[in-house]
Design brief:
The complex is a heterodimer of chains A (241) and B (193).
Chain A: H1 2-9, H2 16-27, H3 30-33, H4 35-42, H5 45-75, H6 78-86, E1 90-92, H7 118-124, E2 131-138, E3 146-152, E4 157-160, H8 163-173, E5 182-187, E6 190-195, E7 204-207, E8 210-213, E9 216-220, E10 234-238
Antiparallel strand pairs in A: 1-10, 2-3, 4-6, 5-6, 7-8, 8-9, 9-10
Chain B: H1 12-21, H2 34-60, H3 63-80, H4 87-107, H5 116-123, H6 127-138, H7 141-151, H8 157-164, H9 168-186
Classes of the chains: A alpha+beta (241), B mainly alpha (193).
Chain lengths: 241, 193
Amino acid sequence: MDNKYHEIMSHIDVNDEMRERILNNIQSDASLNSNKKAKVTGFNKARISSILGIVAAAGIVLAVGGVFLSKAALSGSKSASTEKKYEDNVEMVTGGVVSDSQSEDSYDFAAETIAPDANAAEEDGTADDRYFLCPGAALAGDTDKLSVTVTKIQYGNKVIFDSVSIQEFVSILNEYDLSEDVDAQVSPDGMVITVFQDRVSHRLTIDGDHIKIDDMVYLIGYDHDTQNDMGSTLSKYFVSH
Amino acid sequence: MTGSIFSIRFNPIVFLLSAVFMSDAAPVKSVPAAEDVSLTAVRLMDTYGKHILRFAYSYVHNMEDAEDILQETLISYIRTAPVFENEKHEKSWLFTVAANHSKNKIKSNNIRRADELNEELIAEKKEDLSFIWDAVKQLPDDYREVIHLFYEEDFTTAQIAEVLKRRESTVRSQLKRGRDKLKVILKESYDFG
C-alpha cells in the first residue's frame, strides 16, 4: 500500500504553468499588498499622542499596582488551586497525552464544535463581549509563566504580538477557514486579528494564566516536561459540563 | 460551572503590560514588502507546493480545485506570517490550513467532477493503481486524510493529530479503520504492512 500510494500520488505535481499562475496571482493579490498602506497610516499623530498618554497613565497605574500586588500576595495561591481543579483532565493541544477517562469512541475531539455558551453569557451579561489573549512578558521575574492579557475587541480588531500563540489560538477558534472567520494581518503594530461580526463569537475569560474559551480552559506557559519555549505551549483542560 | 472563577477582572499590571506591548517600542514583525511576499511564495511553493497539492487532491479529486486550495493556503500563510520553531511545525501549519480550505471547498458543494489522476492512471494502463485510488476515494473523509498523511507524507500519528486537531488515539483508530476498510474494498489484494 505504501509504495502503491506513493506511486499514485507521484502523478500529481506542480507543473511550471501552475507554478507561474499561482505565483503571479499571489503577487497581484491586492489584499496582500494592502498591508503596506497600514504601515504608512500606523505612525500618525493620534498614535503618538496615545502612546504619550499611555506613558503618563503608566505612572499612575504603577502606584496603584503596588496595592494590587500586596493584595495578590495576601490572597495566596488561587491560581494553584485553579490548576489543581483541572489537573486531573489535561491534554496538550499539540497531539499530546490523553489522560481523560473517556473512551475514544465516546469522545471525538475533532468533532467537537466550539460554540458559545449562550446560557452562561446571558447569566453574566457578557454575551456581546469578545476577548483575545495577548501574551506579554514574564511577570515579576517569574520566567516560567507568561503574563497574559485579554483585550476586548472594540472596533473589530485588536493588536496581538505573539504570532505563534495567534496561530495556535486561531486554529483552536477556527477549525475551518482562517480567511473567512478570523483574519490575521501583519502591521507595524504587530498582528491584527479581525473577527467578522456576522460569524460565531467565542466567549473568552481569563483567570491568571488560565484562559477559558467557551467551555475549554487553556493554560499558557512554559512546559517543563517538553522544554517547549514560552508561548508555544498551550495546555488544554477539559471542563466538566 | 466555572463562571465565577474565570470572570474578567481589571488588573492594572496586566493593563500596563498590555499598553506597553501595544506601543511602537514592542518587538514586532515588520510588514512584508512586495518582494518579501514574492520570495516567501516561491519558497513555500518550491518546498511544500507538491505536498499541499497532493493533500488537497486527496480531498477534492480534481486538479483545478486542488490548485485553488494550494493558492489559498499560500495566501493564508503570507497574510498570517506565522513564526515557527522549525520546519516541521511550519509544514504542519500549512497542512492544517490546506485541510481547512479543502473542507470548506467540499462544504460549498462546488467541487468539479473531473478526476485527472484516475484518467491518467487508466491512460497509462495502470489498472491496479486506478483500482487502489478508487478504493481510497471511497473512504470517509476522516479516514482518507489520515491515510494520506500517513502513507504519502510519512507523518507519525502524533503529527497527524496535530495537523488535524484530533487526539492521537483517535488518529490511530481512524488509521486502523481506514486500513480495514481498504482491505475489504481491495479484498486483501495488497499488503498494507
